Amino acid sequence: MNQQTQKRLLGIVAVAVVAIIWQIIAEYVVGRPFILPSVTDVASAFITLLGSGTLLADLLVSLEHFGIGIIAAFLLGVPIGILMGWFRVADYLLDPIIETLRPIPPLAWIPFAIIWFGLTTQAAGFVIFAGAFFPILTATYAAFRDVPKVFVEAGKVLGCDTSFELIRYVALPAAIPAIASGVRIAMGVGWMCLVAAEMFGVSTYGLGYQLWHNYYLHQMPNVVVYMLILGFTGLIIDRIFRNYVDKQLLRWRAGEVA
Hints:
By secondary structure, the protein is mainly α. The protein is about 80% helix and about 0% strand. It has ten helices and no strands. The two termini are about 20 Å apart.
């Protein structure tokens, strides 16, 4: 049995043990589905929601919200981070503004999201953008500030005469690992902001909205279903991103660390 197979088997065993303990506690200790639904209650609710099409529809809406926010955060965060990290004048001009806005919690933007965009997809995307933008910006800024000077000098010797060429051929490749880490953190923050935005009324659809709606209806098995879907979806998104980065952008680092 190889290490990968052993890892998967141990993971399955761990999940099965947790499910059994959960079922026993919910059924024989708590005894109230409103406080703690059992595994069988949650499984039944999952089948019902899946069969009705509600679960899939809400998942697609949430992924749309998430995609809008993350793409916007990436398209703005990386260029601004590059400007601030590479050009001192841009850093001096933008740093006071960024450092004033950065500590504001993303959820504090929900009232303005509703006022500016209404209860729309764009409003949810804006709240996610507010949470994901600063991790990407900060990671990009730090990565460009930390580019070794010897790389820059070597680039000049090899023919990179302009700042654009140095950024394109020297700084950006050196900064990609740190930027990728920042994007991964931003995706986690954005996924949490998605749930909060949908729960607090920025959207009338989505996983977060249905989670809160079912709580009001006292349908706690449905609440747990949406919680688990949120967890599994976030895990899948993270794994897909990691595999893409490792195989496409960071292939040159393969085997660097065991």
